[in-house]
Amino acid sequence: FRILSGQPDSFSIQWELPQYFSIPIFAVGGAIYFWCLWDFAVTGRGTPAPIDAPKKLVVKGLYLYVRNPMYVGVLSVLLGWATMYNSYELLKYAILMWIVFYIVVLIYEEPILKRQFGESYERYRKSVRPWLPVDAISSQPNFASRVGLKEIAAPIELWTSPGCYLFLYTLPTKPMFLQAPA
């Protein structure tokens, strides 16, 4: 929005606590994305692109904890931008993208994965939460054998629930890093 409005000064950043806080958000989001990309290529023998999707169900790395870690990484980067620029518009964009990711996973990805990997994916889907690693982080190191999976690889993925984003969006008083610039 600000790029299109022709206001180059609106991109100047005063380095305060929120801007410093955005750096680890970027780093974590990028690390999540590239870790998942690596697992897709090495374990799944494919890419996130539908034209070269993984040939094996990826159930290692971050996919042991959530079914959609790649989407979580992308959303973390978007939240990093929103924090960096104190941009309420970018926060709304991140929320919109989370909703789009959620719908794509529900309507498109999960049915394809169920058809492609059958019972293995169904067991995986029932054992691992889609977005939050709540109680999915078990002390059992051999997760794949625990859920009876023989193939190792998976879908495209995320980090937190829509409820969290919607909660932040509807707060009566926005945290400083979510307030629109005056």
Structure keywords:
single chain, 182 residues, elongated, disordered C terminus
Series of H and E elements: HHHHHHH
* General form: elongated
Percentage of β-strand residues? under 5%
Query: Percent of residues in helical segments?
Result: 40-55%
What is the number of helical segments per DSSP (H or I, 4+ residues)? 7
Question: What is the average of the pLDDT values?
Answer: 76
Number of E-type strands: 0
Q: What is the first-to-last residue Cα distance? A: 15 Å
Summarize the structure in short.
Helices cover 54% and strands 0% of the residues. With 182 residues, it is an all-alpha fold.
What does this structure look like?
- The protein has 182 residues and is mainly α.
- It is built from seven helices and no strands.
- The chain has helices at residues 2-5, 17-42, 69-84, 88-117, 119-127, 143-146, 162-170.
- The radius of gyration is 18 Å and the shape is elongated.
- The two termini are 15 Å apart.
- Residues 136-144 and 149-180 have low confidence and may be disordered.
